Amino acid sequence: MEKFGSIEQFKNVIQSVRRHSDKFEIPIPTMKFIGTVKIHGTNAGIVVDKNQNVIFQSRERELNIGSDNAGFCAWGITQKNLFLADSEIINDDFPGFEKIAFFGEWCGPGVQKGVAVSQLPEKIFVIFNITLIDSDGNRKELNPTEIGLYAPRLDNKIFTVYDFPTWEIDIDFNAPQLIQNDLVDITLQVENECPVGKHFGITGVGEGVVFWNPETNLKFKVKGEKHSNSKVNNIKKIAAVDIERMNSINEFVDTVMTENRMNQGLTKLGEMGLDIDIKNTGAFIQWCVKDCLKEEAEVIVHSNFNVKELSGKLSAKAKSFWFANINKF
Q: What pTM did the predictor assign?
């Protein structure tokens, strides 16, 4: 079988982005994420190989009539030809792959309880991912536009997550906290009234939202409190006073960590007998931060900034400048 990987928490994605920037010595980015409704059903998949074999599966195992999962295999067998025909189209446009996996959520009456989609008149299959796998196990995930174009359709039975409301957000991973309130607001909207249920004229609770950056394949989920397994993992709202404080710090950093100051930092490396070389990254950042803290000490004290937090943001800006410009010298 072909497994669909687990979806991380927001905090894990933040760590992953920052580790990647450190490893490849590139600036911490701002990235666009697409949010789709996280449907409370059971994970299901249909895998078609190049020999026209079809496998039905849950998240953890292959399914058959004698060992099914909420009737998904029994239903899938009746739609086998639809997925075979769709796979031929995909293979024509994306040659060289051995398998095509259609991952989705099988939801409706008898699958889960307490949500709007459990009140649907019958079960539906909502596709959220189409993955192509080659003979070496390498994977290509179709992007949202491609999923909308290539996913098989069946009236009132097969959908994609992009048939329902979606959201777009830009996350600056230098200050990811600033997007938290937007994430909470979107998630509460879904929890209070599931957009998928609403599509079918049903009012009820939704589970949450999955956010995905197709370029990097980074994904994270945000659940409402009614469906979160741990309140520790919930994304909390940030008070207005804290947002104002973070904005003040960011504005201060932009004001004092200027291009002129960072260019001066490059000059100082020469004065210290150091080349503009990757091995001297730490020395450059350290000088820039120390210079800001020294020159702006009075403002920092007056504004009651946390020096540790401020130093981290000053370092991030100096680092971005360094890696954006180091190859120019």
A: 0.76
The pLDDT value recorded for residue 229 is 42
With 70 as the cut, is the pLDDT of residue 236 above it? no
How much is the pLDDT for 235? 60
DSSP state string for 56-122: EEESSSB-BTTB-STTHHHHHHHTHHHHHHHHHHHHHHSTT-SEEEEEEEEESTTT-SSSGGGGSSS
Q: Which residue has the tokens 């680092």?
A: 319
**Cross-strand pairs, 48:** 54, 100
CB proximity list for 22: less than 8 A, separation 6 or greater: none
For tokens 């086998």, what's the residue?
80
The domains of the chain are located at: 10-223, 240-328
Q: Smallest Cα–Cα separation from 103: which of 149, 142, 157, 154?
A: 142
* Pick among 1.10.10, 1.20.120, 1.10.530, 3.40.50: CATH of 240-328: 1.10.10
What is the Cα Rg of the chain in Å?
A: 25
3-state SS class at 277? coil
Q: Which CATH superfamily is domain 10-223 in?
A: DNA ligase/mRNA capping enzyme (3.30.470.30)
Query: Per-residue pLDDT for 185 more than 60?
Result: yes
Termini Cα distance of the chain: 51
